[in-house]
Structures are given as structure tokens and as C-alpha cells.
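[[Per-residue structure]]
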Amino acid sequence: MHAYALMGNHVHLLLTSARAGGAAGLMPAIAARYALYLATAYGHEDSVWEEPYDASPVHARRHLLACMRYIEENPVRAGLVARPGAYPWSSYRANALGEYDPLVTPHPHYYSLGRSPGERRAAYAALGSSTCP
């Protein structure tokens, strides 16, 4: 996983799958397991999510980094925090501030932002907020 933001009513994930089609199959598998848990534990029979998920592929370097920042800016746009580093449930602090996060694996395009970890973090943080087409 390269970027994430865990929101109160939705989740943003940007990942590279080890298998072709693996990313597109991830959310249905998670939903099925969670639905089974809810049904077993609470007798819940409704849909797990209100809206369908989007598993759009991200190809270009510019698009990948823009999507990473878009995901990590989501808590700011939602009015939960003033800056992305203040939100504890996203990958921003790993990608821009260098904090250890076992969930984050840097993408090769992230590594191309600089020679040293400090250069990469500074270049990433300087990208600012973005949109994800």
C-alpha cells in the first residue's frame, strides 16, 4: 500500500497488487468477510456499504503522486484537521514526515523524488494538495 486514509464513513487505498487483478478483487473479498462477521456476530443482513467501490488503475507517475496526495488530503477537505500531518489514520506522516508505518510501502516513483529520504519527503510534501482524476 502506497497511500491510505481511513475516514469515518469511507476508506481510500492506493496499492500495487502482487497479482494481476488482485486490487480489484480486494474490496469484494473484504466486504464478504466483513458481511459474514456482521451476520454471525450481530445478525446483520443489509449491504456492508451504501455505495460501490472504485478500483480504478493508476498508471502515470504524475497521476500516481497526485492520487497519493489527494488521498492524504481527504481529512483536510472533510474539515477533520487543518493539515494532513495532524490526521493519525493516513499515510501522510509516513510519506511526507518519515514516520514509520508498517502499512506503507513506497512506490518506485516516490523514490524518484530525491536521492535521500529527507529529499524525498521534502519533495513529496512540496507537491501540495492535488486532485485525482
Q: What stands out?
A: The mean pLDDT is 88.
